[in-house]
Amino acid sequence: MGIFGRSEDAEPRAPFSWVLPRQSSSLAPEDVYTNADLDPTTDPSQRSWGYATWFSFWVAASLDPAFWQTGSSLIPLGLSVSNAIGIVVLGNVLISIPIILNGMVGSNLRIPFPVAARASMGYYFSLFAVLSRCFLGFIWFGVETYNGGSAMTQFLRAIWPSYWDIENTLPESAGITTRDMTSYFLFWLIQLPFFFLNPNQLRYAFMIKTVVVPATMLATVGSLVHSAGGGGPLFSQPNTVHGKDFSAAWLLGLAALQGNWATLAVNSPDFSRYATNNRAVWSQMLAIPISALFVTICGILAASASIPVYGLDISEAYWSPFDIMAQWNNRAAVAFAAMAWMLAGIAANITANSISCANDMVTLAPKYINITRGQLITAVLGGWAVAPWKILSSNTTFLSFISGYAIFLGPFSAFITADYFLVKRRAYHVPELYDPRGIYSYWHGTNWRAVATLILTVPPNLPGLINAINSDIDIGGIKWYYAPGFITAYIPALLVYWGLNVVFPHHETLLAEAVTADDVDLSVPPTLDSYDAKSETYELSSVSAHH
């Protein structure tokens, strides 16, 4: 029959269909379409993320060009290296708290963020958070791919030196050259096979990156420091700002650090539902600050040493690893370093953007989109519709707005933390989260307490966001309320949402104990009690409310 022939006993391949097959394991009612990618990860074989995987996950998330350049957003503010490092440690310790707390929702209940958000925001209002996160994921996917394209340029320049001199045939208004567009397309293309892997398989890519990329960073830094004969002038430079300006620089630096992780504070359940046990997620408390500190110190050391090595002024220090690589004549070193940075970009794009976007799109259109399709759609829309080269080349205002969107991500993250630990006291009824008419529908699918919290906590941050977008607009001293970014969005929202639930409790959702997917006999249909409230004879009859 030949190598491409079909066996007579082979099962015929199902024809392609835009409509996905209905999943038999779904927890949703018969008239609500969903698929297995949204269902809890009840299969023990899916729970494979142990302590080592979590550590490598955060190393994979940190080891990318954006975090390498963290010092470029701190030291130019007038801060010394010691203060910059202090901000990195404090900022990452603080942001790890909501990441871990929200991750416990996923590790305990095995549900992704779009499903977990329904418990606090309501079945339909939670789609606002889902759409917001999906929009941001598209933007950052494109930006991360653009950075990967820069690494691809260095790789191809090392293989074919003439690649560096490709004639540009694109107009200046394009915001990108012919050479860089070619590199961008090639890097975008090599990412695609990774989108066909499930999150359990991706842990191997994270572990490889944990070995390869730190070695590349240390080699780069070691070479520069050796050539410079020391750490360079930045390490002896004191603070150049004092008093009020020093405080402002600290707050702005802290905001920048936490803004980097703001999306992952929301995304956390998307990955923690694959944890081997409930304790594994606590390893992130060490993994997040350690990995971020390592990358930041490498970036500062390299930039500082580049000043004497390449005869630069302090203001001209090479903060980008690609600027440093562009100075190298050793083609083998350039090629291997570029491949490491491309691996870093792919892993970071998957952890922070593509899988989370895919989960969001599965929630929005489960009949047509699964995780793989969602990641491919993210690649197309985030990679091309967003046109990141235009954003990065000219539109700093738009980037300021995207960075400032933490004022919304903070409340979204706070809703999960406050609702799970303070309001519901870890007692969620997981099957009800999949029912638009269930106990988490609140009022027409909207929890007014979450709406009120957004109305009360977002506006105080808006003047600061406006000033960040257009510094010519003077808003007075209130801009410093916005400066800490995620903190002044997360903490007030957590307290307000909790307070509203204390004063106006929603008793139907206040259960005495959790009901997980493992606890439920799905063969028993739901019934209506005498109060027209849905109750499940298999479990809710024995679950009382707490007050």
UniProtKB/TrEMBL annotation:
<feature type="transmembrane region" description="Helical">
    <location>
        <begin position="332"/>
        <end position="352"/>
    </location>
</feature>
<dbReference type="InterPro" id="IPR001248">
    <property type="entry name" value="Pur-cyt_permease"/>
</dbReference>
<feature type="transmembrane region" description="Helical">
    <location>
        <begin position="480"/>
        <end position="500"/>
    </location>
</feature>
<dbReference type="GO" id="GO:0005886">
    <property type="term" value="C:plasma membrane"/>
</dbReference>
<feature type="transmembrane region" description="Helical">
    <location>
        <begin position="373"/>
        <end position="392"/>
    </location>
</feature>
<dbReference type="Pfam" id="PF02133">
    <property type="entry name" value="Transp_cyt_pur"/>
</dbReference>
<dbReference type="GO" id="GO:0015205">
    <property type="term" value="F:nucleobase transmembrane transporter activity"/>
</dbReference>
<comment type="similarity">
    <text>Belongs to the purine-cytosine permease (2.A.39) family.</text>
</comment>
<keyword id="KW-1133">Transmembrane helix</keyword>
<feature type="transmembrane region" description="Helical">
    <location>
        <begin position="74"/>
        <end position="101"/>
    </location>
</feature>
<keyword id="KW-0812">Transmembrane</keyword>
<feature type="transmembrane region" description="Helical">
    <location>
        <begin position="204"/>
        <end position="226"/>
    </location>
</feature>
<feature type="transmembrane region" description="Helical">
    <location>
        <begin position="246"/>
        <end position="266"/>
    </location>
</feature>
<keyword id="KW-0472">Membrane</keyword>
<dbReference type="InterPro" id="IPR045225">
    <property type="entry name" value="Uracil/uridine/allantoin_perm"/>
</dbReference>
<feature type="transmembrane region" description="Helical">
    <location>
        <begin position="398"/>
        <end position="423"/>
    </location>
</feature>
<feature type="transmembrane region" description="Helical">
    <location>
        <begin position="286"/>
        <end position="312"/>
    </location>
</feature>
<protein>
    <submittedName>
        <fullName>Uncharacterized protein</fullName>
    </submittedName>
</protein>
<feature type="transmembrane region" description="Helical">
    <location>
        <begin position="122"/>
        <end position="143"/>
    </location>
</feature>
